Amino acid sequence: QVQLMESGGALVQAGGSLRLSCVTSQSIFSFDGMGWYRQAPGKQRELVAMSRTYERTTYADSVKGRFTISRDSAKKTMYLEMNSLKPEDTAVYYCTAERRLGADEYEYWGQGTQVTISS
């Protein structure tokens, strides 16, 4: 069973930085893709960044140049480094992982971590 656990969410002032972590119960190399989504109050969940095997990491236009995904395979952890934070970055941030087995695709989600940016 795959488990993803996010941490690192906090209340931060605009212009500040945060690093979110996502620890997985299985090797990072067992996934075909890992990334981050977020959901602000009253809005749909949106892609923040996604890193897939053999593909360039993609970022939402709203976070390009400010957010960066990285991974530490030894720690089975993915990170989201967030800089120059804005109030509109306020949301619950979710870690996700993808796995393809033949014709089947599987998605796994963490429980989310709250990020609040004050102006």
How would you state the average pLDDT, rounded?
Answer: 96
- The SS-based structural class is mainly beta
Q: What's the count of strands?
A: 11
Please give the largest β-sheet: 7 strands, mixed
Low-pLDDT stretches are: none
Q: How much helical structure, as a percent, in the residues? A: under 10%
| Span between termini | 40 Å
SSE pattern, N- to C-terminal: EEEEEEEEEEE
Shape, principal axes of CA atoms: globular
Instruction: Provide a count of the helices.
Output: 0
Evaluate the radius of gyration. Answer: 14 Å
The share of residues in extended strands comes to over 45%
Question: Can you lay out the helices and strands and say which pair or pack?
Answer:
Blueprint: E1 4-7, E2 11-13, E3 18-24, E4 33-39, E5 46-52, E6 58-59, E7 67-72, E8 77-82, E9 91-101, E10 104-109, E11 113-118
Parallel strand pairs: 2-11
Antiparallel strand pairs: 1-3, 3-8, 4-5, 4-9, 5-6, 7-8, 9-10, 9-11
What do you see in this structure?
- It is built from no helices and 11 strands.
- Helices cover 0% and strands 55% of the residues.
- With 119 residues, the protein is an all-beta fold.
- The strands form 2 sheets. Strands 2, 4, 5, 6, 9, 10 and 11 form a 7-stranded mixed sheet that branches.
Give the tags.
globular, about 120 residues, single chain, mainly beta, four-stranded antiparallel β-sheet
